[in-house]
Amino acid sequence: MLNKNSSNNLKADITAIVLTYNEEKHIERCILSINQFVKKIIIIDSFSNDKTLGIAKRYNVKVLQNTFINQSEQFNWALKNISIKTNWILRLDADEIVENNFFKKLNKIAKIEKFNAIETIIEHNFLGKRIKYGDVYPQRQVRLWKKNHGYFDGKPMDEKIIINKPNIYKSSLKIIDHNLKGLMFWFKKHFKYAKREAQFYFLLKNKKYIKNNFDKTLLKKIYYYKYPIFIRPIFLFIYRYFIKKGFLDGVTGLKFNILQTLFYRLLVDFFIIKKKYKRLI
């Protein structure tokens, strides 16, 4: 059991780490979903200029600031520079919340101390609607791990935590990804993501990133990039929308797959071509 009867109102022996940058729409919701259940919440902020920090400081949270490079670098900075007192660490994004019975279910995991990480299910919402099909759900990620047992892999996109001596429990715990900022924010964010993804493509191509054979997402990406440029996003759209039944999510599923799969992946290929062209002139 993660709860200890002798201290801190039965709060779980967990420190939650949350990255923020201009998250005034989300941060209170995120904090309230975990505040009464974990011993410590630490926010690593990338110098927000909205009300994020003011809202966060209403609660018993610790706030640190560090210049942002990417999520992986930011989390590794936190793990190196924070004195964490608890045995477990929870990673949560600012636009995420945990399901209502998350900690109740967590406390029922038998012999949890023999594991050094817990794999959770990520439930995605797009423009306010849950996505259930199209190879999106269930997505599984390690979000809870023992202190000093994990670090992030350094990828500029789709970062993964690497667990030392992995003994990972596959749980039914759910973390809900529900961004409230709307479509224009989605476009701005994914332009940045596409540039990072193109950067990562060249790291893979030039063998400057060491492949992790346990990272299934990475292996799928390497396979995907073997297909012809600008054609592969169309193949991926057909696979996700038709073969993996993304159409069952209705109008939202169509919007999601057009934007998240087709548009975004075409944008990544555009930045790849742009960078290749610059090298030639």
Describe the SSE topology:
Blueprint: E1 12-20, H1 27-34, E2 38-45, H2 52-56, E3 62-65, H3 71-81, E4 88-93, E5 96-98, H4 102-107, E6 117-126, E7 129-130, E8 139-146, E9 150-152, E10 161-163, E11 168-177, H5 183-205, H6 216-224, H7 232-243, H8 250-280
Task: Report the uncertain regions.
Answer: none
Taking the sheet with the most strands, its summary is: 9 strands, mixed
% residues in beta strands: 15-25%
* Main structural class: alpha/beta
Number of helices: 8
CATH H level, superfamily name of the largest domain:
Spore Coat Polysaccharide Biosynthesis Protein SpsA, Chain A
How would you sum up the global shape?
globular
User: Would you give the CATH topology of the largest domain?
Assistant: Spore Coat Polysaccharide Biosynthesis Protein SpsA, Chain A
Mean pLDDT across the residues is: 93
The sequence of SSEs as H and E is: EHEHEHEEHEEEEEEHHHH
CATH class of the largest domain: Alpha Beta
CATH architecture of the largest domain: Alpha-Beta Complex
Question: How would you characterize this protein structure?
Answer:
- This protein starts with 11 loop residues before the first strand and ends with a helix.
- The strands form two sheets. Strands 1, 2, 3, 4, 5, 6, 7, 8 and 11 form a nine-stranded mixed beta sheet that branches.
- It folds into two domains: 8-177, Spore Coat Polysaccharide Biosynthesis Protein SpsA, Chain A (Alpha-Beta Complex); 183-280, no CATH class.
- By secondary structure, it is of the alpha/beta class.
- The radius of gyration is 19 Å and the shape is globular.
- The chain has helices at residues 27-34, 52-56, 71-81, 102-107, 183-205, 216-224, 232-243, 250-280, and strands at 12-20, 38-45, 62-65, 88-93, 96-98, 117-126, 129-130, 139-146, 150-152, 161-163, 168-177.
- The mean pLDDT is 93.
- It is built from eight helices and eleven strands.
